[in-house]
Amino acid sequence: MHAFPTIIPGRLFIDGEWRTGATGATTEVFNPATEIAIGTIEQASPEDVADGFAAAERGLAVWRNTDAWTRSATIRRVADILREWAPEASRLMTDEQGKPVREAEAEWLATADQFDWYADEARRIYGRTVDGHSTANRIIVRREPVGVVAAFAAWNFPALLPARKIAPALAAGCSVILRPTEEAPFSSLLIVRACELAGVPAGVITALTGPASRISEQLINSGIVRKLSLTGSGAVGRTLLHLAADNLVAVSMELGGHAPVLVFEDADVEAAARACVASKFRNTGQVCASPSRFIVQDTVAQRFTEAFIAATRELQLGDGHDPETTVGPLSNRRQIAQTEALVADAVSAGATVALGGQRDPRFEHGYFFEPTVLVNVPPHSKILSDEPFAPVAPIVTFDSFEQAIEIANSTVFGLASYVWTTNLSTAFLASERIEAGMVGVNTMAVATAEAPFGGVKESGFGREGGSEGILDYTVAKATILTL
Ligand SMILES: O=CCCCC(=O)O
């Protein structure tokens, strides 16, 4: 048994120790439902960051020489600890990020799944041998750890997103420097604490909280970090890619999406609408794989829209700690402004607000926005092209398979996508024609530890999850033998 930490360590974790920063500067963290501060985190100074990457370099030397069975058993213990902590950790996540406790609990279990999955994959890092030009040649290919990894994740899934980077990196034998987000840092720090308790050696995991741009710049310019993994916005991705290019650091980028849902007339339309509502408003729409454009065959559009609105009306907006709540607040003030702007733009373009459309006036505090449904949405509305990260569902129609695919592929993004049909040919053809890293057919559940998660186009590159996920943290080394 591992007791849940009574004091959440809002500290830096460097060389196996929880430390205050060299300058003593801290940042407050707020509950988005109450706007009340729930704690503080340290701001790592340049000296702290330098200590962090030096420790990570030493940790790498230890961990890359630790056998795969030991790495596997250690990572498995992290999963076990996180499962033990899930009930309390869920309430903490709700405090800092806003999502309903039930969703937070699901996130912690999915987080533990990442560690479980990569505990197994640690023992399955396969090499190969190839015969060379000459019968005397043998080429042996081994996959070695890429080196020190810098991991930057977004605030919308403060446990799952770091876990998707930490678990495969540890499995591959890398050391990891995590920069938790300032909006929701405590869940990420809990993972670090679980790693410590599980026996991950000093320096193998480091946590540095503080200003994103300064810390990332220092890490990438350090000459020690060999791999950068980001889940974040396209703008941040571009900035970090420039830095990585200057330093020839390898990158994986998960940069968001704008997932189309194609609903064909042969689908179970009501089941599709219910599943779409549950998925659309999960985490208040702040999900990179969130279905965000509902593209419905015109013959069933009215039925779909009615069922969608009816299911949306049943949602309960409120504080995530209330057991009745099914949709929590947006996570921060920026999201409110962005959501309001998207709705205003769509309405001025000619869209109709069929439900919601504004900040919920019942709440004096907190970032509560009504679950919103837009219909008659003109193609040039920003809600159909900009990543929304908002509880707003635009419904548009199509009249042919080709038009459905054209609309689905009309954004710069290509992360998740969804198809609802009972026709096997339509399912296959649509999933092959949609430009996306993932396609859910008659399901909205595409994010699971055993499947590769990642995008194409401006949604980024690299994969997290599945047996593919560990490859991003390895390099192939060829040894060419002449016998
Ligand atoms: O925001 C991106 C992560 C998606 C995780 C999920 O859908 O569970």
What does this structure look like?
This protein has 483 residues and is α/β, with parallel strands linked by helices. It folds into two domains: 12-255, Aldehyde Dehydrogenase, Chain A, domain 1 (3-Layer(aba) Sandwich), CATH 3.40.605; 259-448, Aldehyde Dehydrogenase, Chain A, domain 2. It is built from twelve helices and 20 strands. It has helices spanning 46-63, 68-97, 101-121, 160-172, 186-198, 212-220, 234-247, 269-280, 301-313, 333-349, 401-408, 424-433, and strands at 12-14, 17-19, 26-30, 37-42, 128-131, 137-145, 148-152, 175-179, 205-207, 225-231, 250-254, 259-263, 291-297, 352-355, 372-375, 392-398, 416-420, 438-441, 460-461, 474-482. The strands form five sheets. The protein has a seven-stranded mixed β-sheet, sandwiched between helices. Strands 9-8-7-10-11-19 form a six-stranded mixed β-sheet, sandwiched between helices. A three-stranded antiparallel β-sheet has the order 5-6-20, with no helix packed on it. α12 links the parallel β17 and β18 (438-441). α1 crosses α6 (212-220), α2 packs antiparallel against α4 and α2 (68-97) packs antiparallel against α5. It starts with 11 loop residues before the first strand and ends with a strand. Bound molecules: the ligand O=CCCCC(=O)O.
